[in-house]
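Thread amino acids onto this structure.
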């Protein structure tokens, strides 16, 4: 037999069954899968990731809510501004009130001071008048009416008790100037009808140098509002007012402003 003749081998043939082939295929497939996955991961790592967010759609209700919120904010701001203006106005009013109060107090104090000064001046004037009248009474107490003065005094004293009537000229009712005019008419002396004229009808005389028959007046010379006749002994007779009528009173009862001498 030839040395090249085929001799059957004594080695056992490999038993490559289906399970072994499948396992090897699986391993190979797994390696390929890992490789593919790695390649895919590398590719994905190289690309940037972009995320998209969806914004809510502005519906009609949402738009209304936004508008209402804006309106509420504006209203609140307006209220704050109005309150601030009110506070500022109140502060200004309070400041002005304090200033007005201070001015009123100052004015009241000034008025009080002036009133007190006037009161003191009036008191001093009355004191002077009393002194003058006291001196006049002392001097007149020794004087006696004579002649025409005596006739005037007698007539005017005879009217004591008559009533006072505005515009009255006798014979039983008189006003002050009507009585004085009638008294002087008894001796032929014509006097003006009213007090203002009678207060300048003669020569002005001092209240400390009075004589019976002198005309006394109250108010200013030429603007007197009342007249009477001095009758001596510090007394005068006149138609005073509706409640007293014609009366005789001391000079201190109602101190006159001045006197005139006609006779």
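Threaded sequence (263 positions):
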């Amino acid at each position: 037999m030839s040395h090249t003749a085929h001799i059957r081998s004594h080695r056992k043939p490999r038993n490559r069954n289906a399970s072994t082939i499948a396992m090897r295929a699986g391993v190979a497939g797994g390696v390929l899968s890992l490789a593919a996955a790695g390649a895919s991961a590398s590719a994905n790592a190289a690309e940037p990731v972009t995320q998209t967010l969806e914004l809510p759609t502005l519906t009609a209700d949402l738009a209304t809510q936004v508008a209402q919120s804006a309106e509420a904010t504006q209203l609140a701001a307006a209220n704050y501004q109005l309150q601030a203006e009110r506070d500022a106005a109140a502060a200004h009013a309070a400041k002005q009130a304090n200033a007005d109060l201070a001015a009123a107090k100052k004015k009241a104090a000034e008025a009080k001071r002036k009133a007190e000064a006037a009161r003191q001046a009036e008191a001093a004037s009355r004191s002077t008048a009393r002194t003058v009248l006291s001196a006049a009474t002392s001097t007149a107490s020794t004087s006696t009416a004579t002649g025409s003065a005596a006739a005037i005094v007698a007539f005017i004293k005879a009217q004591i008790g008559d009533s006072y009537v505005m515009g009255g000229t006798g014979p039983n009712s008189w006003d002050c100037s009507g009585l004085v005019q009638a008294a002087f008419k008894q001796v032929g002396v014509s006097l003006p009808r009213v007090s203002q004229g009678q207060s300048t009808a003669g020569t002005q005389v001092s209240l400390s140098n009075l004589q019976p028959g002198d005309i006394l007046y109250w108010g200013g010379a030429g603007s007197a509002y009342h007249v009477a006749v001095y009758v001596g002994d510090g007394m005068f007779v006149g138609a005073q007012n509706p409640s007293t009528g014609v009366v005789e009173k001391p000079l201190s009862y109602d101190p006159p402003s001045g006197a005139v001498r006609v006779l």
